[in-house]
Specification:
about 325 residues; alpha/beta; TIM Barrel; three-stranded parallel sheet; 12 helices; 9 strands; about 40% helix; about 15% strand; binds zinc ion
Length: about 325
Amino acid sequence: MYILDAHCDAPTQMYRGRDFGKDNPGVQVDFPKMLRGGVAGSFFALYIPARLSNTEATEYAFTLLDCLKRQVAANSDKVAFATDRASMEENAAKGLVSIFIGLENGSALLGRKGVLEELYSEGVRYVTLCHSSDNDICDSCTGQGRWGGLSPLGRNLVRRMNAIGMMIDVAHTSNDTVRDVLKLSEKPIAYTHGCCSSLCSHRRNLPDDLIHGIASSGGVVCMSVFPCFLTDAFSDFDDDNPDGRPMPDAGLVLDHFVHAVDVAGVEGVGFGTDYDGINHTAKGFESIDKLPILMEGLKSRGYTDPDLAKMASYNLLRVISAQK
Ligand SMILES: [Zn+2]
């Protein structure tokens, strides 16, 4: 069964100097861990901090892309780039893990002309419209509500992304932004990393009507393993300064999957851990080689193998191929 993670922030760690070719103790993602876990692939997101100006954001996106390309080239015995189901399955047949590319924060598209097309030709297959603040494209779920959803420029960008086949990711956007994108986009969209509001009120999580809306558009919502998204009991948890309390149980992650499937249907749910963008995870999911345990957990909740195969990768891959 192919397991594909919709979101991790590995390129940031590459930029900071982690060698992904080595089995690094105590880290969430590297290539040996992906191989050991039998993970088919992961979207490595070029994460652009909200504080950067559009020009700086564009420059930094290409810096991260260079770091990523260098590490993939240096480990061609372990990994290869992929952009769709066919290339992932070709890589898997050769024993290689697939590295897909996403861009987290559309600000990086705005530094100069033609960046969207350039990144698409480099293999980037989704753009998360914003990060932790409102940007020139849309409102963030943790912003001030500058536009009331998509900005005029954001509306134009959605049309351009539809036209070239770049998948729109609404993780981090405000609920009004998600509604605007659902109304405007002619292609299915994704929510690559987060959880369900009805089980945990964190602002990053999605309410049921939007989970349903994304799934009805043919899209996918991908569940994370981040403690703060799992339960209100962790709403005061500081990921950078942990207070020593035990991490939430794995069962809470499964609860979010089960709820998402109840609302979205089994065709509308995927995996989006947020590894390397977070310091802590639910118990048992400390690194990417543990994802098969998540599969086992879902099996214990009664899902069949064909359902699991969809959630593990085929749903997300279907949304990617629907962009063409
Ligand atoms: Zn994120």
